[in-house]
């Protein structure tokens, strides 16, 4: 990624859509990704690409033949990620995660990683994102969400039957990781 100062300015300027006071730490990203089995995963989706810190970790772990779709509503973050991740199997999508179905073309994802600020997203959109994430995830796939409130687990219970909750202090602020399937 380019200049971290410019990225942070964009983060703070658009806090209502980014929902974060800083980007995900490397220990948080590593812990999040540790709950996923990348071997054989063909289609991977990231909801809320931000500065690309989770994207970089996914690319490091995914198979060469896999495709990664990264959804991000912030145009600046998308432009920066497109400069950094120009591989043909990585698609940076400047659109809402609620439109995941339009980009999967009938396919289903093996893994969906999310750092979306669900507590800041209006209820109808939040429901649509959760429904489509569930519906476009393979039966054995995982939806893995970083969040700052344990209470989000109860929202995810409406869409996923199994939810494991993990916690890490190695981020500011400390975060929960919800592993859903």
What would your notes on this structure say?
The chain has 181 residues and is α/β, with parallel strands linked by helices. It has a single domain, classed as Rossmann fold (3-Layer(aba) Sandwich), CATH 3.40.50. Helix content is 36%, strand content 24%. The protein has eight helices and seven strands. The protein has helices at 4-13, 15-18, 26-34, 53-61, 75-84, 100-104, 123-135, 152-156, and strands spanning 43-47, 67-71, 90-93, 109-114, 137-147, 163-168, 175-180. The chain has a seven-stranded mixed sheet with strand order 3-2-1-4-5-7-6, with helices on both faces. Helix 3 packs across helix 4. It is globular, with a radius of gyration of 15 Å. Mean pLDDT is 89; it is low at 14-21. GO terms for molecular function: methyltransferase activity. InterPro entries: SAM-dependent_MTases_sf (IPR029063), Small_mtfrase_dom (IPR007848). This is Phospholipid N-methyltransferase.
Number of domains: 1
SS element count, helices = 8
Cα(first) to Cα(last) distance is 32 Å
State the share of residues found in helices, binned by percent: 25-40%
Return the CATH architecture.
Answer: 3-Layer(aba) Sandwich
Strand order of the largest sheet: 3-2-1-4-5-7-6
Largest sheet: 7 strands, mixed
Could you please say which CATH topology applies here? Rossmann fold
Secondary structure elements and their pairing?
Layout: H1 4-13, H2 15-18, H3 26-34, E1 43-47, H4 53-61, E2 67-71, H5 75-84, E3 90-93, H6 100-104, E4 109-114, H7 123-135, E5 137-147, H8 152-156, E6 163-168, E7 175-180
Parallel strand pairs: 1-2, 1-4, 2-3, 4-5
Antiparallel strand pairs: 5-7, 6-7
Helix pairs in contact: 3-4
Domain Methyltransferase small: 35-162
Protein name: Phospholipid N-methyltransferase
Pfam family, one: MTS
């Amino acid at each position: 990624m380019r200049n971290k100062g410019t990225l942070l300015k964009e983060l703070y300027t658009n806090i209502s859509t980014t929902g974060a006071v800083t980007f995900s730490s490397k220990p948080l990203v590593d812990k999040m990704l540790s709950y996923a089995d990348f071997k054989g995963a063909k289609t991977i989706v990231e909801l809320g690409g931000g500065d690309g810190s989770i994207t970089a970790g996914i690319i490091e772990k995914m198979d060469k033949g896999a495709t990664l779709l990264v959804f991000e509503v912030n145009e600046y973050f998308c432009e920066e990620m497109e400069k950094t991740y120009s591989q043909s199997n990585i698609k940076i999508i400047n659109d809402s995660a609620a439109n995941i179905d339009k980009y999967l073309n009938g396919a289903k994802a093996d893994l969906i990683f999310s750092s979306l600020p669900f507590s800041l997203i209006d209820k109808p959109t939040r429901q649509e994102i959760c429904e489509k994430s569930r519906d476009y995830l393979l039966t054995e796939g995982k939806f893995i969400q970083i969040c700052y409130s344990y209470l989000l687990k109860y929202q995810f219970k409406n869409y996923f039957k199994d939810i494991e909750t993990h916690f890490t202090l190695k981020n500011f602020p400390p975060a929960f990781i919800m592993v859903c399937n």
